């Protein structure tokens, strides 16, 4: 049997969220964020790599003045499950002290990685800290990390597209699809 890591293997994928549905939801999230941060500058932190498309579209839809920074984390464990051991691979380049911060994540699954990042950022004394995720996946949740803005909710399933990957592939899909058999 071939591995999904093999580029020529055809996986069975079922459409879940269309490109149009994602675009509409991004506009709705941007509107809510604008309302909540009216008159303030917002520091948005993208969690790499999965959130890069989401934050790009979100930033373009937001009218609030925005500055952007990036963080990259690694969570050790199996390909589909986090161990809770988090390593910072790329830290922020700017201070968040006394700033309104919005973390932009692609997916919240177990919540362990995001909880670790949230605690790290709170120690840096932002004026406020909120979290925005494209996908809130509940089935594997082991911690109650607060998520303030949610694009879509789902129970379970392995998804790819719109920044989400399987072994670094399929991030370029314009929609989000469930991969069968993973």
Task: Tell me the layout of helices and strands.
Layout: E1 13-17, H1 19-36, E2 42-48, H2 52-61, E3 66-78, E4 81-90, E5 100-108, H3 112-122, E6 128-137, E7 149-154, E8 158-160, E9 176-179
Parallel strand pairs: 2-3, 2-5, 5-6, 6-7
Antiparallel strand pairs: 1-9, 3-4, 8-9
Helix pairs in contact: 1-2
Descriptive terms for the model:
globular; alpha/beta; 182 residues; Rossmann fold; 3-stranded antiparallel beta sheet; disordered N terminus; 6-stranded mixed beta sheet; 9 strands
Report on this model:
The chain is of the alpha/beta class and 182 residues long. It has a single domain (18-179), classed as 3-Layer(aba) Sandwich (Rossmann fold). Helices cover 21% and strands 37% of the residues. The protein is built from three helices and nine strands. Strands 4-3-2-5-6-7 form a six-stranded mixed beta sheet, with helices on both faces. A three-stranded antiparallel beta sheet has the order 1-9-8. Helix 3 (112-122) links the parallel strand 5 (100-108) and strand 6 (128-137). The chain is globular and about 50 Å long. 30% of the residues are buried. Mean pLDDT is 90; it is low at 1-6.
């Amino acid at each position: 049997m071939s591995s999904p890591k093999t580029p020529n293997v055809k996986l069975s994928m079922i459409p879940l969220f269309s490109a149009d549905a994602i675009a509409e939801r991004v506009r709705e999230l941007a509107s809510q964020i604008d309302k909540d941060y009216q008159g303030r500058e917002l520091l948005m932190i993208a969690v790499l790599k999965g959130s890069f498309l989401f934050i790009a579209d979100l930033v373009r839809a937001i009218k609030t003045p925005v500055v952007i920074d990036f963080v990259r984390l690694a969570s050790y464990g199996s390909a589909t499950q986090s161990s809770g051991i988090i390593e910072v691979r790329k830290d922020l380049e700017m201070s968040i002290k006394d700033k309104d911060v919005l973390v932009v994540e692609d997916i919240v699954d177990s919540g362990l990685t995001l909880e670790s990042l949230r605690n790290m950022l709170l120690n840096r004394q932002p004026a406020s800290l909120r979290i925005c995720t494209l996908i809130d996946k509940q089935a594997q949740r082991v911690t109650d990390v607060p998520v303030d803005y949610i694009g879509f909710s789902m129970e379970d399933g392995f998804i790819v597209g719109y920044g989400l990957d399987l072994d670094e592939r399929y991030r370029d899909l314009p929609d989000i699809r469930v991969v069968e058999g993973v």
